[in-house]
Amino acid sequence: MAQYVLRRLVQSLFVLAGLTIVVFFVTRQIGDVARLMLPIDATEQQYLEMRQALGLNEPLLMQFGRYVLDLLRGDFGMSIWQNVPAMDLVVSRFPATALLAFATLIFSLAVALPVGIAAALKPGSIFDRIATVVSIFGLSVPTFWLALLMITVLSVQLGWFRTSGYGGLEYLVLPMLAISAQSIGRLAQVVKTAMLDVLNAQYLVTARSKGLFEHVILIRHGLRNALLPIVTIIGDELIGLLNGSVVIEVIFGWPGIGKLTIDAIERRDFAVIQASVLFVAITVIVVNLVVDLIYAWLDPRIRYS
Amino acid sequence: MSLAAPATTRPSRRRISNWDMLLHDPVALIAVIFLVLVSLAAIFADQLVQTGLLLDPVAQNLLGRNKPPLFESRLGLHLLGTDQLGRDLLARLLFGARISLGVGVVTIVISSLIGVTLGLVAGYRGGRVDDLIMRLVDIQMGFPQMLLALIIIYAAGPSVTNLVLVLALTRWMAIARVTRATTLSLGQTLFVEAARSLGASHLRIVLLHILPNLTSTLLILISLEFGRVMLSEAGLSFLGMGIQPPNASWGLMLAQGRSYIGTAWWLVTFPGMAIALTTLATNLLAGWARSVNDPVYRKRMAARIARR
User: Fold this and answer.
1) Distance from the Cα of residue A280 to its chain's centroid
2) Which chain A residues have any C-beta within 8 angstroms of a chain B C-beta?
3) Distance between B3 CA and the closest CA of chain A, angstroms
C-alpha cells in the first residue's frame, strides 16, 4: 500500500512538472507587466529600468531556470502588485473556495442521495421520470445564467439574500444553489444507476430471503455496495468545485482562488497565476489519492500493489 | 390467410430500427426536432432575413432600445424584444446560434479526432505506446482545465479559432480513455482474431472491424461532451475571453445583457434559455442513445411497439 502511494506521488510529480512548464511559458505571452505598472507618460528610460528591476530583461530560459530553482526551495515568487509571497496570497484565498465547495457538495448530496435512491427503488415510475428529466435539466443549465436569474429574483426583488460579497449564510446560499444544479444533476444520476445495479444483485435476494427488515437491506446491503461509484463521482465533483467556479466567483464577488486568478491574469501578475494553478493541481492530486484510499477501505477486494 | 400467421405470432422477435424507437419516445423525438429546427434556422438565417421572415440582426434603432417582447418598431415586430442598441433579439439569437453551435461542432470534431485516434492506437498497439499515451492523458487530466483555458486564451488572444483549439485540446482525454478501453476488449474478440488470421492488415482491422463497433459508445459520449463544450464556450465568452463583438454568441449576449438585468429581463432570459434548451436536447439524446443500446430496454420497447 505504502508503495502504491509512493508511486502515485512520483507520478504526480510529472503532472506538476508538465504544468509548471506549460504555465510558465504561456503566462509570459500574456503581456508586458512593466508597461502596465507605469503611467502612460513614462519615458523609455523608466520602462527599461522597470523591466530590469522585475528581472524581465534576462533570456526566458534563464528566468525559467531561476524560477524552477526557487520552486525547489519552496519559494513560489512574489506577487508583483502586492509585494507579498504569491503562495501566501493563494493560501489566504483557499478557505473561501473550500467553504463554497464543501457547502455545495453537502447540499447536493443531501438532495441527490434520497432522490437517486427513491428513483432506483421504483424504476420507470412517475417519480423516476420526473427526477431524471429534472436532473438532466440541472446538468444543462448554464451556472452563471442561473446565478443571474437568482440574483434578480431572490436578491433584488425579494431581498432575501445579498447580491454579492463574502460573509455569513446570506452570502453563501445563492452561489451554493447556483453551482448545486449541476452537481445534483450528475450525482442523482450516478446514485440511481449505482443503486439499480446493486438492487438486482444476488446478495440482496439472499438478504431478503433471510427476512431482514427492508431498511436494513437497503442501507447495510444495498447502499454500502453502491458506494464505490458514488465515491468516485463525489471525488470528481469535489475536484471540479475546488478548481474554483471561476464564473460564479466573479459574479458573486466571492474572494476565492478563481477570482484571484482572473484578477492576476488581468494584471499580468505572473507569480500569482503560476502559484494558484500549481496549488489547484496539488489539491486535485490529493483528492484523487484520498478517493483511491477510501476505495480500498470500502472494498477489501481492492488491493493496490 | 394462413400465410399471414408467421408474421404475427412472434411480434417481439421482429427487429425494430432506431427510427421506430425514436418515434415512440416523445422526449427524444422533441429533442431531435428542436435540434434540427435550431440548426436549420442557424444555417438559413441569411435566407430568412432576405425573405423578410426575420429582421436584420445588425439594424440598430436607438429609439427602440431595450424594448420588451412583441414590441413593434419602425423595423417591424420584435417577437422577443430588442437589445441595448435596438437590434432584434430573435434575429441576434439565430445568428448567435451559428457561432455557439458552430464552435461546439468544430470543437467536438477536433477533440474526437484526437481522442479516437490516440485511444485506438493505445488500445490496439498496447505496450510502450499505450503507456505513453495513457500517461499523457493522466497528466492532462490533472491540469485545472478552466484556469488553463483562461490563461492560454488570454495569452493567444481571444478569437474563434483560439477558442476552438483550446476547448478541443482540453477535452480529448475522456474520449481517448473510453476508446482505448473499448478497443482493448474488442481486440480480444473472435471476429478480430478471425480477421487477423485471414491476414487483414492492422489498419483494416482497426478501421473496419473495431471502429464501427465503437460508434454507439462514442456517440453517447460525444453528445454529452457537446453539451459541456457549449457550456464552456458560453462561460468563457461570458468572462470576455471567448467570442468578441461584433460577433455574437449566446454566452456573449448574456454577458452584454447583464448590465440591464433589472430593467430588461429578456436580454438575459432568452440567450440563457437558448443555451439551456440546446444542451438539454443533446443530453436527452445521449440518454436516449444509451437506452437504445441497452438490449433489455430494446426488447421491452419492441414488445410495447408491437402491441400497438
Assistant:
1) 8
2) 11-12, 14-15, 18-19, 22-23, 26-27, 29-30, 132-133, 136-137, 139-145, 148-149, 151-152, 156, 243-244, 246-247, 250, 258, 261-262, 265, 273, 276-277, 280-281, 284-285, 288
3) 38
Considering only CB atoms, which chain B residues are within 8 Å of A273? 151
* ipTM for this prediction: 0.78
State the DSSP H helix or E strand holding residue B6, giving kind and residue range, or none if neither. Answer: helix B5-9
Q: At what angle do helices B173-187 and B89-125 cross, to 10 degrees?
A: 40
Report CB contact under 8 Å: A149, B144: no
Judged by a CB distance cut-off of 8 A, whether residue B43 touches chain A is no
Q: What is the pTM of this model?
A: 0.81
- Across the interface, whether the CB atoms of B148 and A23 are under 8 A apart is answered yes
Q: Is residue B92 part of a domain?
A: yes
Question: Which residue in the set A18, A141, A250 is minimally distant from B276, CB to CB?
Answer: A141
Q: Which of B215, B230, B214 is nearest to B105 (CA)?
A: B230
Contacts (Cβ under 8 Å, ≥6 apart) of B252: B96, B237, B238, B242, B243, B244, B245
Phi first, then psi: what are they for B72, rounded to 5°? -110, 115
Q: What is the pLDDT along chain A (305 residues), one digit of tens a residue?
A: 778 788 888 888 888 888 888 888 888 877 777 777 777 777 777 777 777 777 777 778 888 888 888 888 888 887 877 878 888 888 999 999 999 999 999 999 999 999 998 888 887 788 888 888 888 888 888 888 888 888 888 777 787 877 777 877 778 888 999 999 989 998 998 888 888 888 777 777 787 788 777 777 777 777 777 787 888 888 888 888 887 678 888 888 889 898 898 888 888 888 898 898 889 888 888 888 888 888 778 777 766 65
Question: Cβ of A262 and B150 within 8 Å?
Answer: yes
Q: Is B54 within the bounds of a domain?
A: no
Give me the number of domains chain B comprises. Answer: 1
8 A C-beta contact, residue B288 and residue B27: yes
> Has residue B249 been placed in a domain?
yes
Q: Domains (ranges, CATH) in chain A?
A: 2-72 (no CATH), 88-195+229-298 (1.10.3720.10)
> Which residue of A26, A140, A152 to mutate against B (max B Cβ within 10 Å)?
A140
| Residue B16, domain member (yes or no) | no
Cβ pair A152:B139 closer than 8 A = no
* Domain CATH code at residue B27: 1.10.3720.10
Which residue range is the domain that position B142 belongs to? 22-45+77-307
Burial string for B75-84 (b: 16+ CB within 10 Å, else e) reads: beebebbbbe
